[in-house]
Amino acid sequence: MSAPLYERIAQFYDASSGLWEGIWGEHMHHGYYGRGGGYRLDRRQAQIDLIEELLHWAKVDSPESIIDSGCGIGGSTLYLAQKYNAKAVGVTLSPFQAARATERAKGANLGSRVSFQVADAQDLPYGDNSFDLVWSLESGEHMPDKRKFLSECYRVLKPGGKLIFVTWCHRATNSVAGELTAAEKRHLQEIYRVYCLPYVISLPEYEDIASECGFTDIISDDWSTAVAPFWDRVITSAIDLKAIGGLLNSGWTTVEAALSLGLMRDGYDSGLIRFGLLSGNKG
């Protein structure tokens, strides 16, 4: 990963993760609101629901070893380790996140079988055939080399292991909808700038890459309508007095990201932004 992007991502999450945890809790990802897009009163429960819905969708069967690639402060990592009584590791570019996740693992008495470290998900510090489950929830959008990332996911999976990969995408362009318009490209560029992303691609492109990397039994889905209400909830929470104080203390990059939340909401509304799911097995 290029050093400037690596540093921007690390700095962004070093600055914003404490604020996010204080307002939203340990799960730094979308919530699941149902395929009809309805609201839940408990926004944190919606985030847990997303994890459970993904596990059901991918038909996960009691993994004993898990890697969370792009782990945040360990929300999914600890949840999965507890659910399956499994050993788990999480990797992140953010030293703050790795330290906080480690602290949370100790607090949950999971320090003996769950660990976290600062590492590049495109160059994982683990051997071939190490894990039963590779879990990547909303980190693929940060990867500058999507093929290298999915190749690493494949490499560290044990034979018979499963990948669950969920990422921000743009709409498909291999249909009557056609190529991205100039306005859509400008919209995406603003999202990339604010959220430290190199670029995003469509779900069909990810399917092709996963197949080329060797994954079998590939399934995919688009859950955009099920998660889109999340951004209205985030926007509402950002105007809370506690959030405003935390934003001001977190630095300009966090403030700018908060001021730009509408970019994602509008992207979902227009159909430009898609919430893509992909799962596959290592033969």
What key phrases describe this protein's structure?
283 residues, alpha/beta
Structure description:
The protein has one domain: Rossmann fold (3-Layer(aba) Sandwich). The protein has a seven-stranded mixed sheet, sandwiched between helices. It is globular and about 50 Å long. The mean pLDDT is 91. It has 283 residues and is an alpha/beta fold. It contains twelve helices and seven strands. β2, α4 and β3 (114-118) form a beta-alpha-beta unit. The chain has helices at 3-24, 43-58, 75-84, 95-107, 146-156, 182-195, 203-213, 224-227, 229-238, 241-250, 252-259, 261-270; strands at 65-69, 87-92, 114-118, 131-137, 157-170, 216-222, 273-281.
Brief description of this entry?
This protein is α/β, with parallel strands linked by helices.
Q: Could you say how many structural domains there are in total? A: 1
Terminal-residue CA separation: 28 Å
What low-confidence regions span 5 or more consecutive residues with pLDDT below 50?
none
Which CATH architecture? 3-Layer(aba) Sandwich
Strand content: 15-25%
Spatial shape? globular
User: Helix/strand-derived class?
Assistant: alpha/beta
Largest sheet: 7 strands, mixed
- CATH names the topology as Rossmann fold
**What's the CATH superfamily, by name?**
Vaccinia Virus protein VP39
Report the order of strands and helices: HHEHEHEEHEHHEHHHHHE
Number of strands: 7
**How are the strands of the largest sheet arranged?**
3-2-1-4-5-7-6
Measured as a percent range, the helix fraction is 40-55%
